[in-house]
Design goal:
- By secondary structure, this protein is α/β, with parallel strands linked by helices.
- It contains 13 helices and 12 strands.
- Helix 1 links the parallel strand 1 and strand 2.
- The longest helix is centred in the last third of the chain and has 19 residues.
- Bound molecules: (2R)-2,3-dihydroxypropanoic acid.
- The site of (2R)-2,3-dihydroxypropanoic acid has 7 residues, from loops.
């Protein structure tokens, strides 16, 4: 049995695959595969372990022989899951293990934005730290402020816990369904989307990218936020409209923004957001810690091993494939 992996992954996952007797072929070039290269390699394999590669209906049709596709991510918006399901291909993801690291990144961006940290670091490099001015470089304090979580799932919950523990922040959230555990544990209050925008000092996005959430943070959303507020997105860049965000910052509709995800990715190096004092941008590193990437590689490997052994994969995003084959 052979698995093709679209990047080099952490050793822990690769070793697990090899110990299970699976031949591992990794794509070692530091560039994304073309669709043709992906299909060519998958046609010689029984399983695919995919790191961020877009898997569309054409690819799935061409590689319908795959026994399992294991994603090296919790998000699966880059995969045509419906097509995979209709072809009976189980798709696996890596839930849970990256919640803490991703929440840490949101927390880091919130703090860095509130104190203009990334921008001020650049001013030192440019030789602009010459004089102490008590009225310059002023940030915003977070103690006792209100955090609004858009998508209070596993990652949102970790972020809410950090903000409450560190700064005693009050917690509002908006989900399609209520998170009663979080309401009990953290005294988080569910509010309609518009109220979340109007009442929060920091709005942090932790929802999946779906047709309902795509472009959700547009001009009309930013207009409702406080002029002193900070917008944080560590989920998916397509959930905010980048041009609207830029304009909202330029026109003072909101105070600052921290992004680990942009639209498109990578962000172009001359993007005006990168020059703004109250903006902090990271290159999609939410889950990028040694511990978390190792854990993700292990979950993905477990999905591959189960799929190649013909048993139900432990972390399926389309478990219907098993029901329909009963
Ligand atoms: C995820 O797991 O979905 C992260 O955003 C990495 O893509």
């Amino acid at each position: 049995m052979k698995v093709f992996i679209t990047r080099v992954i952490s050793e822990e996952g690769r070793v697990l695959l090899e110990e299970a007797g699976i031949e591992v072929q990794e794509w070692k070039e530091k560039r994304a595969l073309t669709q043709e290269e992906l299909i060519y390699n998958c046609l010689k394999s029984d399983a695919l372990l995919s790191v961020g590669t877009r898997l569309d209906a054409d690819f799935l049709q061409a590689c319908s022989h795959l026994k399992v596709i294991a994603l090296h991510s919790v998000g699966f918006d880059h995969v045509d899951v419906d097509s995979a399901t209709s072809l009976n291909i189980p798709i696996g993801n890596t839930p849970g293990v990256l919640s803490a690291a991703t929440a840490d990144t949101a927390f880091l961006l919130m703090l860095a934005t509130s104190r203009k940290a990334f921008y001020l670091h650049k001013t030192i490099e440019k030789g602009e730290w010459v004089f102490f001015d008590p009225t310059a470089n002023l940030g915003i304090e977070l103690r006792g402020k209100t955090l609004g979580v858009f998508g209070l799932g596993k990652i949102g919950l970790e972020m809410a816990r950090c903000c409450k523990a560190a700064f005693g922040m009050k917690l509002l959230y908006h989900n399609r369904t209520r998170n009663e555990d979080a309401e009990q544990e953290l005294k988080a209050k569910w509010v309609p989307f518009e109220e979340l925008l109007q009442q929060s000092d920091v709005v942090t996005v932790h929802t999946a990218l779906t047709p309902e959430t795509e472009g959700k943070f547009d001009w009309s959303a930013f207009e409702l936020m406080k002029p002193s507020s900070i917008f944080i997105n560590t989920a998916r860049g397509a959930i905010h409209k980048e041009e609207d965000l830029l304009r909202a910052l330029e026109e003072g509709k909101i105070w600052g923004a921290g992004l680990d995800v942009t639209n498109p990715e990578p962000m172009r190096p001359d993007h005006p957001l990168l020059q703004m004092p109250n903006v902090a941008v990271l290159p999609h590193i939410g889950s990028a810690t040694q511990e978390t990437r190792a854990a993700m590689s292990v979950l993905a490997a477990r999905n591959v091993i189960a799929g190649l052994n013909g048993v139900q994969i432990p972390f399926a995003v389309n478990p219907e494939v098993y029901i329909s084959s009963l």
